[in-house]
Amino acid sequence: MNIGGIQKTSLLDYPEKISAIVFTKGCNFRCGYCHNPELFDTQGNQELKASDFLEFLKTRKGKLDAVVITGGEPCLQKDLKEFIIAIKKLGFLVKLDTNGSFPEIIEKLLPHIDYIAMDIKGPLEKYQKISSSQIDTEKILKSIKLIKNSGIDYEFRTTVVKSQLKIEDFENIAQMLKGAKKYYLQKFVPAKTLNPDFTKENTYSENEFAVIIKTIKNDFKELKLRG
Fold it and tell me: Alpha-carbon distance 209 to 215, whole Å?
């Protein structure tokens, strides 16, 4: 595991659980709005060894409920499955954050995790532009199907940059995710970003988000806006 950092306690990242967060290094996407640009450098110093993190978890039994593994893109880690199993053996729940571009890995991990969150960059025709990467969108669709049929708790989520996603794009996303349990719209915050130009970007207003939500709310069991 190439770990770029940890957050020892979070009340927000695993719904209704107290968690620790592991940030893995490396990503196959280059989304300009990414707020973890320091995780793209896989050659820099490793923040923490996996064995050291597991030792830390042993001291947190009874204080933490879960571990969130995020990135970067965790599915790039060759020993991710073994890492998850080791965390589970210590008695913690595991949530995985992913961009969904590795369905073959997600399929192998689903029996070992308790919650999965997949980022939806936009409608399929905009994936390449938003991610600044060559994307096999069939893999995105396969991951969506796997997650929806997994039997574990899950969410899909989209970070909303106004210049990238028009209101009609959300109708296309809703059709792609139709019947999903949870879909969250996340307001883009122009702070630290991979592409400095994105510090000049913004998101939709509260009223505009209300229109978007009203348009697609019937396609999901739960649809919320995250600030």
Answer: 10
